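On to our target:
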Amino acid sequence: MAYPAESIINITTLINSAGLGTSNFGAGMVFADFDSSSDATFVAGTYRDYGTAAQVAEDFNIASDPYAAALAWFSAIPKPKTLRIYLRIEEDTPVESLNDAINKGIWFYWFEFETGVRAVDADVLALAAAGDAAGKFFAYTSNQSTIRDPSVTTDIVTKAVTQGSRRVFVASHATELYEGFEIAAVFSRVNFNASNSTITGEYKKLPGIDAESLTPTAYSTMKSKGAVFYTVVETGGERDNGRVINSKTTSTFGEYIDDVFNLDAFTNFMTVALYNALTKVPTKLRQTPAGQQVLIDAAAQVGEKFIGNGYLGERLYLDDETGEEKLSRGYEILTKAEDILLLSDAERAARGAAPISMRIFRAGAIHTVDLTANVE
């Protein structure tokens, strides 16, 4: 028998773990009332996935709210791939249903409830607060006529804006039940890994939703209160039959839907990138400038991705150190690799890295144009 080479050469194989993947921000969920399904085998407290509205019709009557929500969701262009429907437990409140799904690990980002729940302002506000705290986006539609009345300050939009939850918007329509859910469906197709993929909700088309033609008072009231609406746009007798206008959330910070949506995605991508940078090292990430640089590079890669997809963009800013005006491509990482050498003994003993300080500059979106024509 020959002498084994393994006795001379000892090979140790180090395998990188797969790490975490980024979240699916296209996942939408309808919370259906416990008695909505026509299928007796659909158990309350569980969910099913559907790829078309026709599939939803197999489990829900076509006159039901879940089917109406599915029609709106799958009417969006480009069409979403799936819709998730959770059947509520009979005795649960709306917030308990929301939390039950979350606690069971059922993933979704956008969500809606049936009209019976949405008709109660207190439930709407409670869902907005609970969803916001859990990082879920409530794509809510209201048929309240008072939203369009400037003399009324007790409508649901005014109440929601006063509450200030970030992850909710109120779509106002006289008759359509799920206008807002179709707006959410449009956002659900954004692929943050693709170039120039981020969007604004403003001026989007909603196939299957009736575009309204309203009074100037109704338009100005909805804009001032913060309601989203879908309307006919016209000039000189020419009509554009249907555009989303005033695509804002009820956020205290005055954010548009895409401001909140994109920042949620950016935060998730950054979390995953830094987690994977920490954990996918077969040995260890050293508590040295070289180790700190790995984390800085991971953060920079996310910054580059979000420049590419259009969330971040060029901006003039004042440098904190020099006071000079500089041009950023879309983000600036202020932390240096050598900052880890400044850790205190306690911070070093706790195995921490130097905190990464990063400034990001949103590319934003142009919604209006002013032009002055000087006639000679």
Observations:
- The chain has a mean pLDDT of 95.
- The first strand starts at residue 28 and ends at 32.
- The radius of gyration is 25 Å.
- The CA atoms of residues 32 and 87 lie 5 Å apart.
